Amino acid sequence: PQYVEQGVADIGILGENEVWEKDKQVKVIKQLGFAQCKLSLAIPKDEQYEGLHYFENKKIATSYPKILQGFFDKKNIAVTVEEIGGSVEIATGIGLADAIFDIVSTGSTLLMNGLKEVEVLFRSEAVLIANSNLESGKQAILEQLLFRMQSVKQAAENKYILLNAPNSAIQQISAVLPGMKSPTVLPLVEEGWSSLHSVIKEDQFWEVIDQIKQLGAQGILVVPIEKMII
Fold it and tell me: Domain containing 175: what range?
């Protein structure tokens, strides 16, 4: 983030955890929804844990001292933060610390080193950051970039759906299809039938498909969307 702060780069993409740890004067423009991780406290797996006061006067190894110290300062719990540059998970095994604070994804690395996760302090993902003093021309380019990124993201989260249905079921099926406004309805050559076109969210897909099938939908086609501009 220091390069963006200094104006060497106008924008950047990095983990949110790095933004808060480095504490540079940059603007977080957008959370990007990928590279999710969490920063967690972990202790030896045989230790009994009953709450944050376990860490009172303990030494904790981490590569994120600012985030960690800030958390315990707010809790009024005295800890000693031992900053190390890498391989944080081995710190307890070699007697360097009583606990660790580090990035956890699956937890397998903790298990391999005889540790267990006890508290999640920070959840992070990739973010887009920008220099705090972008000139107007660059700000306009950034806004164009954001618009295009959003259209791609929305397209990835939605599918285009086409189906045939008896006219008697159109109203009920339309109520189930979320769409952008309302489904497009086109009459078919076969009397009494129509084709409905709509947009459906990926995370609602199977639930909606089951419902519209029960209402009489047939010949359902699902098509990926390349870009989506609302």
Answer: 158-224
Alpha-carbon gap, residue 97 to 140, rounded angstroms: 49
Backbone angles phi, psi at 150, to 5 degrees: -65, -40
Could you read off the pLDDT of 35-53 as tens digits, one per residue? 999 999 999 999 999 999 9
Q: 189 pLDDT band (50/70/90 cuts)?
A: very high
- Side chain identity at residue 160, one-letter code: Y
Pairing mode of beta strands 59-62, 80-83: parallel
CA atoms within 13 A on the CB side of 172: 12
User: Residue 181: what pLDDT?
Assistant: 79
pLDDT value at residue 212: 94
Residue 179 has pLDDT above 80, yes or no: no
Residue 174 lies in a domain: yes
First-to-last C-alpha distance (Å) of the chain: 32
Say yes or no: 199 and 122 in one domain: no
Please state, in angstroms and rounded to a whole number, the distance separating the CA atoms of residues 199 and 188.
Answer: 20
Confirm whether 28 is domain-assigned.
yes
Query: Which residues, listed in sequence order, are joined to residue 164 by a DSSP beta bridge?
Result: 195, 218
Query: Are residue 124 and residue 22 in the same domain, yes or no?
Result: yes
CATH number for the domain harbouring residue 199: 3.30.70.120
Residues listed for the chain: 230
The pLDDT, as a whole number, for residue 140 is 96
